[in-house]
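Homework help board

Subject: predicted structure for assignment chain

Our instructor gave us this sequence and asked us to write out the predicted structure in token form, then describe one feature. I got the tokens but I'm not sure how to describe them. Can anyone check?
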Amino acid sequence: MSVIYVIGAPEISPGRVKIGVTGGDPYARMKDLQTGSPVRLELLHQEPGGREVERALHQVFTRYRLHREWFEFGELDPVAELRAAMGSSAVSDAQPAWTTDPDPERALRMEVWLSVMRLGPRLNVRTMANRLGIHEGKAHVLVQEARRDRERITRRLTSVRGGG
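My token output:
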């Protein structure tokens, strides 16, 4: 599952942060960023969300943008601002519906399954991963499972129709 993260150096510049998304461990992403940073970085916040949510957040925070994914909130608390934005329709509308389900893993599998049933071989795994805000490897596994289900259903329907 993809994660929206906020990384910054609160001891040096409390309002300056990077808002990004990763399909992996946000601590590993912070470690990657730390390599090129002269100051100690901290993971300030993380929550589920994909590329669409990240884009929506970047759009909401355009006035604070320094460069690409780096923002300067000045005296404002960037984490509080992000939490408030996550509740706004501009961002919540970008959040895939499966993430708000009480059983998000089941809902995610169902979303992939329905897409495979509807699109069949036309389904693009990378597009699916980006739309759902999940890692491409996970999307590939879920799509393969759903395609196997689709083949089983098709074979069964064919045998029922042929035998009827």
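Reply (TA_rk): Your tokens look well-formed. For the description, you could write something like this. The chain has a mean pLDDT of 86. That's the kind of observation they're looking for.
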